[in-house]
Amino acid sequence: MNIEQWNPSTLLQLSGSYWQTCALHAAVKLDIFSALSQGPLSNDVLSKNVHADPRSMAMLLNTITAMGLLQKQNDQYNNTPASQQFLSKHSEQYIGYMILHHHHLMESWAKLPKAVVSGKSVRERPVHQENEVLESFLMGMFNNAMLIAPKVAEHIDLSTSKNLLDLGGGPGTYAIFFCKKNSHLNATVFDLPTTMPFAMKTIERFQLQDRIQFVPGNYEQDEIHGTYDAVWISHILHAEGPEQCDLLIHKAVSALKSNGLIFIHEFILNDDMASPLFPTLFSLNMLLGTANGQAYSEFQIKAMLQKQGVKEIKRLDFKGPNDSGIIMGKVLR
């Protein structure tokens, strides 16, 4: 928003915008949109289906209707085309897991003043949890990557690469689409053991078990075995401080063959560190949830690669949602 647009009305609108956010989170957590995927239902039936109080459920349903995510006619509620497509678990384009991940972050965001004063995180990282928080995080990453990975695969030339390392690859979505795009390519997903069940389920869903393997490990502590033609590192650096980023990139570069390619995919700040908006907000999100994480600028990421001897560094002509970008380089032995 431009400076001249700020006034008491717009400031209060922004301040209270989390009310709509909370209503959306509640509807997704109660799985209302999936319950309506087969057609309209009354409040009484919906309340019984999700074990909710009818009076309070009616308030939520009417709010979601006012937000334009449900339709109401003759006291029956029904999905809109958008909610049917993106908020029902029966849709291939479901993004509810990412919304639930945002829901789990809200408590820590309310403690932002405390984090800014102390300089310390106020929540545990989801990858270290084994419950709904971990599931929503990993499957939320899958939701996001499913929207982006097909486009990313079109921007990256892996025609000379036979094997790729997806470092910290979570459910393996990018490895999947790189292999779908390049029939000659095999991939290895390296991530924490707790991630493995989600990754294997995703890889099997695309019937790529014969070309994609999962190697359990901690990239902060463990060595990376084997050598690769390309390394893909997507949304990993922002969870680490500069020193840990240097170590991670060093491990990745060491695992590359001569003429190997390294790709860094991140929410990239401009060099003034004060724009674009989403990467600045994401930096705060990393303050809340990590010891030293932050968003990095294009200059900073390129400098990290140069420090490890990477050559021919450039930013690709790709812009993803929320200002994500890709910086690549080559390792010459």
Name its key features:
333 residues, alpha/beta, 19% strand, globular
Question: Any overview of this molecule?
Answer:
This protein is of the alpha/beta class. The protein contains 14 helices and 11 strands. It has helices at residues 8-15, 18-29, 32-35, 43-49, 54-66, 81-86, 96-109, 112-118, 132-155, 173-181, 196-205, 242-254, 277-289, 298-307, and strands at residues 41-42, 70-73, 76-79, 163-167, 186-191, 212-216, 228-234, 256-269, 296-297, 311-315, 324-331. Strands 4, 5, 6, 7, 8, 9, 10 and 11 form an 8-stranded mixed beta sheet that branches. The chain has a 3-stranded antiparallel beta sheet with strand order 1-3-2. Helix 2 (18-29) packs across helix 5 (54-66) and helix 2 crosses helix 7 (96-109). The radius of gyration is 22 Å and the shape is globular.
